[in-house]
Specification:
Elements lengths: L32 E8 L4 E8 L5 E3 L7 E2 L4 E6 L5 E6 L3 E7 L5 E3 L4 E2 L4 E6 L5 E6 L10 E8 L2 E4 L4 E2 L11 E6 L5 E6 L4 E7 L5 E8 L4 E6 L21 E6 L4 E7 L18 E3 L6 E2 L4 E6 L5 E6 L4 E7 L6 E8 L4 E6 L12 E6 L4 E7 L5 E2 L6 E2 L4 E6 L1
Antiparallel strand pairs: 1-2, 1-33, 2-3, 2-4, 5-6, 6-7, 7-8, 7-9, 10-11, 11-12, 12-13, 12-14, 15-16, 16-17, 17-18, 19-20, 20-21, 21-22, 21-23, 24-25, 25-26, 26-27, 28-29, 29-30, 30-31, 30-32
């Protein structure tokens, strides 16, 4: 039976925290050090940290992480592709903006932008022109679930029209948009509707205006979205980190049915998309022989390892993280293991160590909302996660959103 209301604190807001691991940009951390930002709901702050990639040591930047104010109930944050600006979704109804300084600290910028009802997830297009916001709304209000679109200019946001409702004609209650993802190529937006159990695909034009393409049935209470590691890499090209095309797969966590759906997205010409000279159209096709894949209880945030083929889902209901091997050739997710977090795990993220040499590792970090702590894990070559001897890292104020880069 589908969940029709948001979870209350401490297991709060089933919305994912969309984590954008972009390039290092102008930031000047040492080569073996990544930046990490943690938002806390108890005191409505976001703090800056470093994490050493050789041993996972976490250290605040400046005094107590140089805290900057957020809005009410911070839930999700992203950094623009140029690495210069951070946006925070606050479920109280606002989007706050920050300049990302070279030392990793944040400077709040301007007045918060007003979003729709209960903004819980964010995505930006690869060019950094538009910010898309999932406004979850209420299950009891059929028109409250919407998508807000903003044009980005530095730290300034300008609304692109009114918020777009995600309810369909057949819906009798709120839709509950709780996750958003932008295709790595093409102009397509995907929205997970937690209350109506579907995923919607949209196209957007050069001004950011959305056009609905179609609706697709997911599992129960779809929540988090993430594209596969090398989605958008054409079959006739390679990059240093992606030597083969991987089917442009979109992973969807279903927090009510405790599994992950896998869809193939028609975002570029491939063996199954753009056949016969037709153009990609942004449609989704579930891969029934490979989907869904079992997860823990209440999977929410999902993210991919940017340097190798592993995928991780944060299971809020069971306070753990599920680990998977991903096959680019087949699209299959193979379960590896699970890692245990602290009390009331909320979200998680991963560093993006492109070098990935023998002396440095990628690190996964979970936020534990109930125990006011972080759980770091070292990513092994096999994709499995191990907990360092240092254990959990204490933070104040009930951590929620996290971002690493």
């Amino acid at each position: 039976m589908g969940m029709k209301s948001r979870w209350m604190l401490v297991v709060l807001a089933m919305a994912p925290v969309f984590v954008l691991n972009s390039c290092r940009g102008s930031n000047n951390a040492p080569a073996d050090t990544s930046f990490m930002w943690v938002a806390t709901q108890g005191d409505q702050k976001v703090r800056s940290y470093t994490i050493r990639q050789n041993n996972g040591a976490i250290n605040p930047i400046g005094s107590n992480g140089s805290p900057a104010a957020t809005g009410v109930q911070p839930e999700a944050m992203i950094i623009t592709p140029d690495g210069k600006t951070m946006f925070m979704a606050n479920a109280g109804g606002t989007i706050t903006a920050y300049t990302v300084n070279g030392d990793g600290t944040l400077t709040a910028s301007g007045s918060p932008a007003t979003a729709g009802s209960v903004p819980v997830a964010l995505a930006a297009d690869p060019a950094g022109k538009f910010l898309f916001v999932a406004n979850q709304g209420s299950a009891s209000d059929v028109t409250s679930g919407t998508i807000s679109v903003f044009a980005i200019s530095g730290t300034s946001l300008t609304s692109v029209g009114n918020p777009i409702p995600t309810e369909l004609p057949a819906d009798v209650s709120g839709s509950g948009p709780s996750g958003v993802a932008v295709s790595p190529v093409g102009n397509y937006l995907y929205v997970a509707n937690q209350f109506s159990n579907n995923v919607l695909s949209y196209s957007f034009d050069a001004s950011g205006n959305l056009t609905l393409i179609n609706s697709y049935t997911a599992g129960t209470n779809p929540t988090g979205l993430a594209f596969s590691r090398c989605a958008g890499v054409a079959s006739n090209t390679t990059t240093a980190n992606c030597t083969v095309a991987d089917g442009n797969n979109l992973f969807v966590t279903n927090s009510g049915s405790n599994n992950i759906s896998i869809f193939s997205a028609c975002i570029q010409v491939s063996a199954t998309c753009g056949i016969g000279g037709s153009a990609p159209d942004g449609t989704l096709t579930e891969i029934p022989s490979k989907s869904p894949v079992a997860a823990g209880v209440g999977p929410a945030t999902i993210f991919v390892n940017r340097t190798s083929d592993f995928v991780y889902a944060v299971d809020r209901g069971s306070n753990q993280i599920s680990e998977y091997q991903y096959s680019p050739a087949t699209g299959v997710l193979t379960p590896l293991a699970t890692g245990s977090g602290g009390a009331s795990v909320f979200s998680g993220g991963i560093t993006s160590n492109i070098a990935n040499n023998s002396n440095t590792f990628n690190w996964v970090v979970l936020t534990n909302n109930g125990s006011s702590s972080l759980s770091p894990f070292q990513v092994q070559a096999t994709g499995k996660l191990i907990t360092p001897t240092s254990g959990q890292y204490a933070v104040q104020g009930q951590p929620s959103a996290i971002l690493l880069r």
